[in-house]
Amino acid sequence: MDYDFNKWMSDYRVISAVGENDEGGIDRLAYSDYDFAARTEMLNRAYGMRLQCYLDAAENLWFSKPGTDPDLPPLIIGSHLDTVPNGGRYDGVLGVMAGFQVLRYLVDNKVEHRRTVELVAFSCEESSRFSLSTIGSKLACGLTTPEKLRNYKDFQGHSPVDFLSRLRYAPDTLEERKRHIKECLGYIELHIEQGPVLESYGTDIGIVESIAAPIRLRLEFTGRSDHSGACPMELRHDALAAAALTITEVERLGREEAKYRSVATVGTINVPHQALNVVPGACTIQVDIRGIHRDSMDRIYEGLESFLKKLEKEREIRINRVLLSDEDPVPLDRSLGEIIERNCVKTGLSYRWMPSGAGHDAMNVAKLIPAAMIFVPCRGGISHNLSESVSEKDLRNSIQILYEVVMDICR
Amino acid sequence: MDYDFNKWMSDYRVISAVGENDEGGIDRLAYSDYDFAARTEMLNRAYGMRLQCYLDAAENLWFSKPGTDPDLPPLIIGSHLDTVPNGGRYDGVLGVMAGFQVLRYLVDNKVEHRRTVELVAFSCEESSRFSLSTIGSKLACGLTTPEKLRNYKDFQGHSPVDFLSRLRYAPDTLEERKRHIKECLGYIELHIEQGPVLESYGTDIGIVESIAAPIRLRLEFTGRSDHSGACPMELRHDALAAAALTITEVERLGREEAKYRSVATVGTINVPHQALNVVPGACTIQVDIRGIHRDSMDRIYEGLESFLKKLEKEREIRINRVLLSDEDPVPLDRSLGEIIERNCVKTGLSYRWMPSGAGHDAMNVAKLIPAAMIFVPCRGGISHNLSESVSEKDLRNSIQILYEVVMDICR
Fold first, then answer.
1. Mean pLDDT in residue range A227-232
2. Touching check for A377 and chain B: CB below 8 Å?
3. Residues A201 and A289 in one domain
4. B123 shares a domain with B38
5. Measured between CA atoms, how close is A230 to chain B, in angstroms?
6. Fewest CB atoms within 10 Å of the CB: B21, B75, B337, B376?
């Protein structure tokens, strides 16, 4: 595969920087103006290449490079373009842009291939905005409905459906999209690892065996707000103090299950009407439990529940639990993984089979058709952070391995 | 004292409800439009009564009812009109409105008194907005300067000085106000207790011996933000988890010193760029330590400091400490207190001498002239809360005792 890496890189810098803030982080939240801007940039390039473009009813953006044999089921490659708040330049967008380079190479070099290659940028992969991840692929794969999504709100009270409705969402086109995906051969997603394993082993490529699933819940603590100077310690029902103990317990439970590669995190906290001189009367936190072993995740969940029961009684504080999502770990397709493996061997890249701690759109597509994932190392395993970084070598490897796998399947 | 309580009460309901929100709480933050609206309501009534009105350079609002002997130093009574966010209907405003009723009674009944009575509504008593309390009385008493206040910002980045400047603040009038206060006989502030002591003893009136002082600090935790699914527990530097341990420690230290009537509170917490799927990389909390025994406050402060040192090392997290205020407990004037005492006896009200856990404008005025405070019970000791409540009996007692004390001193 002979292409101009620097040209790709300069293009990559433009797309990956859409939504850059003053700190240098990327604020390309799902369905935001910046998210739309990034898609528009992609569309402009795709039109220039005369690719077929399609925006489905879930706001997923599709590009298609037709093969010579229209009877063969297409291969889908892809990832997502949205970021977490103050995020980095590789999570999601690398998979889309590596795939885009593969299509561009096929077009520019008039490479013949029998099977159609489709590239998808799924919408709203990150859970940052609506506390629910992979909304675009869930909708397209029929794993949720706009009706169910109405319960998920961002901090301004908008639901994802508000944004779908803006573009005149029509329910039957989602059905059509699901039928289309089911007719495809498989799905391959390239993504940064977002963890430290590949880097610490000095491995070029990760082949994902299974994707960890999240159990997510919102905990709403209700105590009593009081004057911070005049209310003695023994009469308090401090909602923030109760939440703090819970945060510590979530971490403890996560550490206890670390040997099974489970993790547990409190990522958000909110004290309404907060003030320095008021004992907090209410507090809300969100808990994210993930693992590839369901029983380990369940132990964290159950441990947390019995802790909360005790805490409610001891402190006379009400704790409302809202289950936001409860998913099972998803095994990926072994045969597709083995095609990635044999192309690593062919191109001289080292590889390892590994689980994915993070969720990805692939876990939804895997419910309909064979799905596989290619991981590339990121520096320090750092992700969801403005200092996300991928070496030039690994960027080159990304494009190379994806191209080899696509040609192996579609030639 | 023979007046129409119901008429006063209907007036009270109007003023105390300015800034009511959808939940029924009061959002009359210092220098907000609602704060100005409440003052305008007061001014309208005072003009009708032909009281002398004066807005000083610290935005404190003064009313004066001249006595027959202009050579006698005036007595000042007063409190404040601003509230905490989602606050109640008695903190501050009761003292102003009880004082206003005393003046109204003197005017309406043409009561003769030799000494001038002044009523003040100090500005920005609550620390909710700028993390600094009693700003209006501090300025008027020469205990701070506009220059120093520039460092205090609200969540929108405004400093108190921005609001003083709006009304063409001129530095020399603050000096004039301080000279005036120093020429007065004394200051008496009536306020709800904001604690449970009077109610639990069934006592009508509290006479404040001394006012607890706050040590306040902001703690800024810097860890590293990571992907909540892909970063294993052992590699994390979770800023929120570190803050949670600190919140628990602040509570523990406060409980340990509860026997000296000290308290310690974390009232605010902020995780920038927070998201459910991100390990928090930064977190800021604010700590409020109060007591009437300086050594007990110091033990909490020092205990916290040594905890933070250990935490920084154990978790490889940076913790920046910003001292927001550090004040000493303030004893009030014994002789003025005894005048309150003898008028309780005279009117058949039960009373007890007690400390004030909360800070008040009286602690600043006490630096210049004798100052005293009258506490009235509030239901459940609840304050800084929309369910703040005072019984009709205690409202009547408030006006009665304040009137008796004013007449005792000024007749």
1. 87
2. no
3. no
4. yes
5. 4
6. B21
